[in-house]
Amino acid sequence: MKCLKWLAAVAICMSATAGTLPVKLFSSCTFPGLDLALSGDFARISGGGEISWRILDADGRIAATGVIGCPSAKSAVIPAAGLKPGEYRLQLEQSSGDTAELEFTRVISPVAFRNRRFLVNDEEFFPLGVYLPWPAEVDGAVISEQSASQWLRDLPRIAEAGFNFVTISAPPHYRTESDRVLTLARELGLPCFVAAAPQDYSELAVHYPGILGFLGPDEPELNPDAANFTPAALAGDYAERKRHYPNLPILVTHSRPQAFDAYIGTRDLAMTDPYTFGEEYHDINRVEHFVRELRRSSSEALPCIAILQMYQLPGNVMRLPNPVEMRCQLFLAAALGADGILLYTTATQETAGFHVIDAPEGHALWDSFPETLRELRRWLPMYRQRPLAESAPLAGALYWQLNCDGDRRILTLINKSDAPVSTAALSLEFGRPLPAELAPYQVVILSEEGVAP
Q1: Are strands 341-344 and 304-309 parallel, antiparallel or unpaired?
Q2: Arithmetic mean of pLDDT over the chain
Q3: How confident is the model at residue 10 (pLDDT cuts 50, 70, 90)?
């Protein structure tokens, strides 16, 4: 669990929903380049017949019409990427006579999207970043490893390692220090998500155009103050955040897949943190499970972001992954369709004295990033395409994916476990022999001509 973000102090009403069709929008705000994502039990709803839709502008004029085609079990996409900024109503009608009306706003935003990807300077942007820690305190003083002074030392090293993104905390009591960090991030060309009080959103967005979104309450489904972190309570919190500044997305991280659907309507975009290495876990099936579920829940309209483990906790409760394990989880998340990947360092009082870049046990991992990130970026365009074939979800320790890269067929093999895994059971036509076995957490990328460059 990361830091506890603020709940906005005042709740306002969310967009109204009327009618008898049990559907809702993922977000009452939508951003340039994004279609509308519609949530509902479409496996059941489709039994009532075809669903037609139309979008009306603020003057009641029809802006777009269509028919929902081929929804997934839990979501559907309404083409709306070309809408101008303004207030709209989405009206749906099923041939059975059931209807729904949903209000939403197309905002004027410095952030735009293409193919679910963030756009930065009109170029598609895949965040590969470091989630900087919250300024946790011990005895009233910020832990040095989690302080702005440390962040200022870290940012150049983060950029040099090949990362292109960070998260930064800017709480009111730490704004002066955080402003220095945001300024350096801007100078280094590192876009960011920011954790801040809602009343500061507008000022921060104006002064730091590299901010791509604001972080809402973290892992609300695990918060001990359960009554104030229910989906209903968070819906009001989200509305208040949007009242302060509607033009950037609100992101919420979830640590339990069941929360992905339960908290729809409490954020614009979702992230998930399948932390994997510790005394309770021995493989990275959690990464596959969480990313698949978030990709499903977010629909094909919205980007989703995976936050992977780059930290340890005392007593081996959680341990620092080694370079091979890190490469494995990075490639797995990318191949499964994550639209951004962040690596989380610690932000708790229990980790005082540990800093992943400077700690001796972190040197090998940190030194591995330049090569690993260069290789990952080489294959990201391929993983952005629909694969020719892939292994069934969570089907054993071996994940495989077959893709086209230009006129070549490329096979990715990933061993998700801490034991060797055989490829003997893999029935796949491929133009060259496969390795008989993959070592623990090994990633192998093959072309039909040989090992892919």
Answers
A1: parallel
A2: 90
A3: very low
Q: Residue 398: name the closest of 426, 375, 379 by CA.
A: 426
* Beta carbons of 2 and 219 less than 8 angstroms apart: yes
Tokens of 430: 């491929």
Compute the average pLDDT of residues 30-42: 90
The SS3 of residue 324 is helix
Bridging pattern class, strands 99-106 and 17-19: antiparallel
Checking if the pLDDT of 410 tops 50, the result is yes
Q: Is 42 helix (H, G, I), strand (E, B) or coil?
A: helix
pTM of the model: 0.93
Q: What value, to the nearest 5°, has the Cα angle with vertex 270 and ends 296 and 396?
A: 45
**Alpha helix locations (H) across 247-305?**
258-262, 285-298
Residue 9: count other Cβ atoms within 10 Å of its Cβ.
10
Report the alpha-carbon distance of residue 250 to residue 266 in Å, rounded.
Answer: 9
| Beta carbons of 95 and 20 less than 8 angstroms apart | no
The closest alpha carbon to 309, from 337, 335, 336, 280, belongs to: 280
Residues 6 or more apart from 292 whose CB is under 8 A from it?
A: 336, 393, 394
Helix (H, G, I), strand (E, B) or coil at 385: coil
pLDDT recorded at residue 145: 85
Edge-to-edge strands, sheet with 443-447: 389-390, 398-405, 408-415, 443-447, 450-451
What is the percent of the chain with per-residue pLDDT over 70, rounded to a whole number? 93
Give, rounded to a whole angstrom, the gap between the first and last alpha carbons of the chain: 38
Give the integer Cα–Cα distance in Å for 332 and 321.
15
Query: What amino acid is encoded at 439 in this protein?
Result: A
pLDDT in tens, 126-147: 999 999 988 888 888 898 888 9
Residue 59, burial from CB neighbour count under 10 angstroms (0-12, 13-18, 19+): exposed
Q: Which residue spans within 284-436 are E strands per DSSP? A: 304-309, 341-344, 389-390, 398-405, 408-415, 421-422
The answer to whether the beta carbons of residues 137 and 5 sit under 8 Å apart is no
Judge contact between 268 and 305, C-beta under 8 A: no
Give the per-residue pLDDT at 17. 57
DSSP state of 279: T
| DSSP secondary structure letter of residue 26 | S
Other C-beta atoms within 10 Å of 387: how many? Answer: 18
For the cut 70, the answer to whether the pLDDT of residue 5 exceeds it is no
